[in-house]
Design goal:
Number of helices: 14
Strand order of the largest sheet: 22-23-1-24
Structural class: alpha/beta
Bound molecules: uridine-diphosphate-N-acetylglucosamine
Radius of gyration: 22 Å
Oligomer: single chain
Number of strands: 24
């Protein structure tokens, strides 16, 4: 297994091109199942999760043409042309779905267009513990018959899906996306209330509109979708990755450097920007991107609670903890989206961070500096927090299990090295 070695303590200076958002790209790719015409998606990031979704879709019968590299200046957004015009399999098998929970996003489009879908429950997941129950209940409200059989969701809608008024009991990003796609081909009007407002959900809605869907309320918590009998092809470009943006903003702050995050937009990360500014980081929109530097007064602690968009994203929680670890004073993080999302704490503690976890809150006491250590990545955002800690720390940090990073960060060591980081990947 590959490892990443970082000799920390060097300020990062320069320009980082922000890639297309993984979490927008995955549902957009699944939306190709909704039409027999070509869906052309630009600005797709080079990531393991994108390959996993491409493998799943081609296994189902979608033909995928890759149209080379677009853009310049070290930016390699890819263009995929996806076409679901041949015979389409409606079973998404366990060995593909277990690799990535977002595979469940094929459920809505398969069911809406073909009247049936058999999708493995995501790996290690049972309804009730790491659930997709809200997706299934909402699809049932649209007339789907749903059974669980040998670890698979068996969904049928022999007479098609029907419009319905769905009120999500809690905000679910994937649930909103699955239902948006299902409703686009349903009979009549569907209303999704308490819908997720994440920019990636809006990106999917805009793409569906480009494919001929009628959707009102995009970007709000109430989406109204008037179903169509068929959708057509479209060309669409994926929104910049707000989590990658926030991650590199923290990298500039904790190393005391200055980065231009090219191609990204402040409106995608306003809650993160508010928190960064509260800690003393200077953030401004400039030169086709976002410029970030640590302010002259240094970093100070702040309290943060994760919430659905437009609140502070759970996917930035681990990275912000690194900033808090080297900021003056105490900070508190309260995680309200996922119960068990402090797996990075013991690893950061190995590098000298002082963090106490009490239930869903963590108290972080700032230390004068972190020290390099051998640490292990546990999940995507936890592993990037270790990279940030390694960049800020004195001495050498060795991170193992970096395959987690490759799921969500495109060429991370190249992007960081180009701005002065001493970072290398050691192949196994
Ligand atoms: C998406 C993002 C992920 C992010 C998360 C929250 C993608 C591919 N992934 O994940 O990076 O961390 O949003 O912003 O876009 N829940 C249920 N029942 C359901 C569905 C969800 O109880 O049927 C719960 C989940 O366990 C979790 C909460 O709702 O506690 C939010 O989950 P959800 O918004 O659905 O996250 P994902 O779409 O899986």
């Amino acid at each position: 297994m590959d490892r990443i070695l970082i000799r920390g303590g060097k300020p990062l200076n320069g320009t980082i091109h922000i890639s297309g958002a993984k979490n927008a790209a995955l549902p957009l790719m699944a939306a190709s199942l909704l039409t027999d015409e070509t869906l052309s998606l630009a600005n797709l990031p080079h990531l393991a999760d994108i390959s996993t979704m491409a493998n799943l879709l081609s296994e189902l019968g979608v033909t995928i043409g890759m149209n080379g590299e677009a853009g310049g200046g070290g930016h390699f957004g890819r263009v995929f042309e996806l076409q679901a015009d041949g015979p389409i399999e409606t079973t998404a098998p366990y060995d593909l779905v277990r690799k990535m929970r977002a595979s469940v996003l094929v459920l809505g489009p398969l069911l809406a267009r073909f009247g049936r879908a058999r999708v493995s429950l995501p790996g290690g997941c049972a309804i009730g513990t790491r659930p997709v129950d809200l997706h299934l209940k909402a699809l049932a409200q649209m007339g789907a018959e749903i059974e669980l059989d040998e670890g698979y969701v068996e969904a049928r809608a022999p007479n098609g899906l029907k419009g319905a008024h769905i009120v999500f009991p809690m905000v679910t990003v994937g649930g909103t996306e699955n239902l948006l796609m299902a409703a686009a081909l349903a009979d009549g009007e569907a209303v999704l209330a308490n819908a997720a407002r994440e920019p990636e959900v809006a990106d999917l809605a805009h793409c569906l509109v480009a494919m001929g869907a009628q959707i009102e309320g995009i970007g709000s918590d109430t989406l109204r979708i008037r179903g169509a009998s068929a959708l057509h092809g479209a060309s669409y470009s994926v929104v910049p990755d707000r989590i990658e943006t926030g991650t590199y903003a923290v990298a500039a702050a904790v190393t005391g450097g200055e980065l231009l995050l090219k191609g990204s937009r402040l409106d995608l990360i306003s809650s993160v920007v508010d928190v960064l500014r509260g800690t003393g980081v200077e953030v401004s929109e400039a030169d086709g991107g976002i410029r970030v530097r640590q302010g002259d007064e240094g970093l100070k602690g702040i309290d943060v609670m994760t919430e659905p968009f437009p609140g502070f994203p759970t996917d930035m929680q681990a990275q912000m903890m690194v900033l808090m670890s080297v900021a003056g004073g105490a900070s508190m993080i309260t995680e309200t989206i996922f119960e068990n999302r402090f797996m990075h704490v013991p690893e950061l503690a190995r590098m000298g961070a002082q963090v106490n976890v009490h239930g869903s809150s963590a108290i972080v006491r700032g230390v004068a500096g972190l020290k390099g250590a051998q640490v292990m990545a546990t999940d995507l955002r936890a592993s990037v927090s270790l990279v940030l800690a390694g960049l800020a720390a004195s001495g050498e940090t060795e991170i193992s299990r970096v395959y987690h990073l490759d799921r969500g960060y495109e060429r991370i060591e190249d992007k960081l090295a180009a701005c002065g980081a001493d970072i290398e990947r050691v192949k196994a």
